[in-house]
Amino acid sequence: MDVDAFSGFNVLGFDTETTGLNPRKDRIVQYAFVGVDANGERVVIDSLVDPCMPIPPSSTRVHGITNKDVQGHTPFKGHTEVISGLLGDAVVVGHNLRKFDWKFLEMEYIRCGRSLPKPYRMIDTLELARTLRIPGRHTLGSLCSRYGIILDRAHSADADAAATLVLLWKILEEYPDLAEGAFDEGTQSMGSDGDLNLRDGDFHEGSVISFGKYSGLAFPTIMSRDPAYGNWLLSRSSPLEEGEREWLRSNYVG
Predict the structure, then answer these.
(1) What superfamily would CATH give domain 3-189?
(2) How far, CA to CA in Å, does 210 sit from each of 2, 190, 198, 217, 239?
(3) Each residue of 90-146: pLDDT tens digit?
(4) Comma-separated ranges of CATH 3.30.420.10 domains in the chain
(5) How many angstroms separate the CA atoms of 54 and 192, rounded?
């Protein structure tokens, strides 16, 4: 895989720290983007966020961020302009990105009533390591140790974001002949896995949901099997964008 394919884009390691593990009820308390912009200039954005809810002691034990630390910081809504400005035409790199950090980002944007911009490409180094069957454990710490990457402040968003970006380069160095198809097993173009598989008005009866327990099924099939889940897909708490929900309502809900 030729890394020159990333030239001309923001290439950003991304990580979050949160109040817990459930993006539907927990919130972001810290986020970081570390990398370079389309002109090759260094990007380091690291910010604490007021989650507007208590940080449980169990979470503080993981990342070290306390309620006192976030007191007086801006709630997430105040960070959306900066984040949105970074994501357009960006290559976003993260470890367990699609199933954790991106889910939290999506839900925070939904709460703010905003649409999360879709990056050019998302690269999940956890999925990439699994696809390549890299020996050993696939935690970020273990992979960093394997490749000689110093990670002094694990579970700090800026340190993890930077380490993940370096990890990607190390993997690409070790697998210089990595085929595009294999590479795409750990990546996804144009956004996360929380959407319909067709966009820009090209929906039709065969359009399927590409995430969750009914991934790969068309919406009418989901509604017939599990109406409660179908109704959740139509709600504001689902990962679908407003336009997608409206399209489903107008075509399938009487």
Answers:
(1) Ribonuclease H-like superfamily/Ribonuclease H (3.30.420.10)
(2) 28, 13, 10, 8, 11
(3) 999 999 998 899 999 999 998 998 888 889 889 999 999 988 889 999 999 999 999
(4) 3-189
(5) 28
Decide if 183 contacts 195 (C-beta within 8 A). no
Taking the model in full, what pTM does it have? 0.71
Q: DSSP string of the chain? A: --GGGGTTSEEEEEEEEESSS-TTT--EEEEEEEEE-TTS-EEEEEEE-B-SSPPPHHHHHHH---HHHHTTSPBGGGGHHHHHHHHTTEEEEETTIIIIIHHHHHHHHHHHT-PPPPPSEEEEHHHHHHHHT-SS--SHHHHHHHTT---TTTT-HHHHHHHHHHHHHHHHHH-TT--HHHHGGGEEESS-SSSBS--TT---TT-BB-SSTTTT-BHHHHHHH-HHHHHHHTSTTSSS-HHHHHHHHHHH--
Asked whether 197 and 83 are in contact (CB, 8 A), the reply is no
Q: How confident is the model over 165-191, as pLDDT tens digits?
A: 999 999 988 887 664 544 554 455 433
